[in-house]
Task: inverse folding
């Protein structure tokens, strides 16, 4: 088995369809056939699975339509997390036919912790701080506003998630002169060998100075201390080359297919 095959097998077996042990009280998880449906997680719900149990044709269309019905009744948008190696091959067409719209494709990259972990090297005047208490979260809002983002509700979701399980989520910011210039957080999915990295925003004026790499190294060191074996990232086209230079390996792609009650033709009369 090649390294890519080994990493993809571990990813499929441990992370896909995974339900964390400790979730915020507002989040509800349901199972329907091969699917795991998560309600009220951040700004949207999620539909995930390890595989689709060889469903095809009308049975698969019915399964997709059922998810639209569930979320339409709630007035809640949702994301169907499609992977590049999912079957059947026409699944993207069936999702679009049901009113789901693809967003930007990212690459799933995985790195062995012992390869990635190391002492972070930061530019002069830049420090990494952990976001722990409610009063710390404005640091994230400050960065979000600097990136011209108007909707900060995802930060409230992070705060709620961390309050439910402080050991399962660690959030960090890079600061220079009291200003937040970058961020990144790490989740520790229960019962797995993985840590997963998220965020990774850096202000344009502070890019190409090693801040992103330093935040990766800082989180990887924490993953090593937690005895995790692998680190997984859904990498953008910008971050993928950096991560591959740090020892990550591309194993598949992931594309969010999103249904919204305000835009989907499935809601039209």
Result:
């Amino acid at each position: 088995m090649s390294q890519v095959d080994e990493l993809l097998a571990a990813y499929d077996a441990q992370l896909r369809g995974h339900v964390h042990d400790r979730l915020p009280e507002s989040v509800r998880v349901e199972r329907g056939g091969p699917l795991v449906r998560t309600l009220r997680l951040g700004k949207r719900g999620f539909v995930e699975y390890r595989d689709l149990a060889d469903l095809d044709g009308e049975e698969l269309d019915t399964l997709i339509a059922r998810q639209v019905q569930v979320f339409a009744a709630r007035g809640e948008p949702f994301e169907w997390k499609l992977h590049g190696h999912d079957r059947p091959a026409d699944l993207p067409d069936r999702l679009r036919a049901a009113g789901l719209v693809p967003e930007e494709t990212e690459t799933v990259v995985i790195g062995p912790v012992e390869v990635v972990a190391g002492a972070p090297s930061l530019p002069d005047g830049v420090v990494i701080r952990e976001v722990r208490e409610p009063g710390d979260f404005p640091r994230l809002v400050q960065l979000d506003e600097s990136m011209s983002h108007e909707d900060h509700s995802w930060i409230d979701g992070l705060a709620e998630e961390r309050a439910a399980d402080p050991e399962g989520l660690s959030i960090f910011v890079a600061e220079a002169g009291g200003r937040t210039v970058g961020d990144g957080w790490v989740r520790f999915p229960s019962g797995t060998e993985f840590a997963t990295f998220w965020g990774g925003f850096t202000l344009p004026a502070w890019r190409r100075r090693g801040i992103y790499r330093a935040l990766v190294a800082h989180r990887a060191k924490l993953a090593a201390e937690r005895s995790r074996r692998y680190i997984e990232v859904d990498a953008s086209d910008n971050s993928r080359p950096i991560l591959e230079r740090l020892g990550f390996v591309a194993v598949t792609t992931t594309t969010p297919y999103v249904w919204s009650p305000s835009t989907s033709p499935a809601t039209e009369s």
In short: DSSP finds eight helices and twelve strands in the chain.
